[in-house]
Design goal:
about 160 residues, mainly beta, 5-stranded antiparallel sheet, 3-stranded antiparallel sheet, 1 helix
């Protein structure tokens, strides 16, 4: 096989030692998870130029390319904008265990935000869930929180 015709070859490496690493979620990611852990609500970024509010917070506004420096608090409530009930098993990279099926994953418009937030929804019966329903985040107990996305267990439907 010529050097320029190696499309089908896969590079594989086997390591005999653990390769621990650290990954930084940055200043705004830290603020997002601290707000959940300490106050049971969401931190978002508000653009001082156009007023758009982003959850999770981000450093730059998409439409106007301005650096965002203002952090605001949002409630843990919103509206389902889209969802899917998933029946395909997979290994959850956060836990290393197979995620129980079925489960519902959805897009949620958090009250006060201008974008959508995706996360699990705690209802798997298609007759009991629909676009437009109000939801509220269900958080882990404070003593169980680890400062990551799993601190939000799921969103429950507000009846």
């Amino acid at each position: 096989m010529s050097a320029d015709n190696k499309q089908g070859e896969l590079l594989q490496e086997t390591f005999t030692h653990a390769m621990p690493y650290e990954w930084s979620i940055g200043l705004y990611g830290s603020k997002f998870f601290q707000e959940i852990k300490e106050k049971g609500r969401f931190a978002a970024a508000k653009c001082s130029s156009c007023g758009k509010v982003y959850i999770p917070p981000r450093r730059v506004c998409g439409p106007c390319f301005q650096e965002i420096t203002e952090i605001v608090s949002l409630p843990p409530t919103g509206v389902i904008t889209a969802f899917s009930i998933v029946n395909y098993p997979f290994i959850d990279p956060a836990t290393g265990a197979q995620r129980p099926i079925p489960y519902t994953y959805g897009y949620i418009h958090i009250d006060g935000a201008d974008n959508i937030f995706s996360h699990f929804i705690g209802e798997t019966d298609l007759s009991k869930i629909s676009v437009g329903m109000r939801v509220r985040a269900v958080f882990k107990e404070k003593s169980e929180m680890a400062g990551n996305i799993q601190d939000i267990k799921y969103f429950e439907i507000v009846r």
